[in-house]
Design brief:
Strands 1, 2, 3, 4, 5, 6, 7, 8 and 9 form a nine-stranded mixed beta sheet that branches. With about 140 residues, this protein is mainly beta. It has one helix and nine strands, in the order E-E-E-E-E-E-E-E-H-E.
Length: about 140
C-alpha cells in the first residue's frame, strides 16, 4: 500500500448524452461526471493499517483550477493498469491515483482518481471539445495511429 498520487491507465466507454459526451466505466458501468472520482468506503476498510491520515487536498487540473469530487461511490475503489493497455477501448485515460493506493499484480486500486489526459481514435471535433470541457484535461487524437 502506498499513498498517492501514482500514475496509472484506464479504459473507458464513451456515450453521447443530453449534455454532451460522457465517459463510463467498462466494468462498473457508472458514469464519470467530471475529472475526479472518490470512494470514501476505502477509509473504513479494516484491511488497511491505521493511521492512514486525512484525504489529500482536492486535486488541481493542468490549468491550476481546483477539481471537485463529482461523485462519491461506495465500493472497492478505482482500478488502473500500471502501463498503457495494448488493447484499445473507445477512450484511453492516463489517471492519477489518489489517497490510499494498493498495488497488486495487474495494477492499482485507489481511493480516488483524477483524469490527467485522454486518448481517442476519433476525429469528431464535438467529441474532443466535450471531453476537454467535462474532464478539464488534454484530449489527444490518435486517429490513424
Amino acid at each position: 500500500m502506498v499513498r498517492g498520487p501514482v500514475i496509472g491507465w484506464r479504459r473507458f466507454q464513451c456515450h453521447l448524452t443530453h449534455d454532451g459526451y460522457k465517459l463510463y466505466s467498462l466494468t462498473a458501468g457508472c458514469a464519470w461526471d467530471g475529472p475526479a472520482m472518490q470512494d470514501d468506503s476505502l477509509m473504513l476498510d479494516v484491511s488497511f493499517p491505521l493511521p492512514y491520515g486525512p484525504m489529500p487536498e482536492p486535486a488541481r487540473g493542468p490549468k491550476g483550477n481546483p477539481l471537485p469530487v463529482d461523485q462519491r461511490l461506495p465500493g472497492v475503489g478505482f482500478f488502473s493498469y500500471r502501463a498503457r493497455p495494448l488493447r484499445w477501448a473507445e477512450v484511453m485515460a492516463e489517471v492519477e491515483n489518489l489517497g490510499i493506493v494498493v498495488e497488486h499484480e495487474h495494477g492499482y486500486r485507489a481511493q480516488g482518481q483524477l483524469i490527467r489526459r485522454l486518448y481517442v481514435r476519433e476525429s469528431d471535433p464535438r467529441l474532443i471539445a466535450d471531453l476537454e470541457r467535462r474532464y478539464q484535461c488534454e484530449v489527444v487524437n490518435e486517429a490513424g495511429a
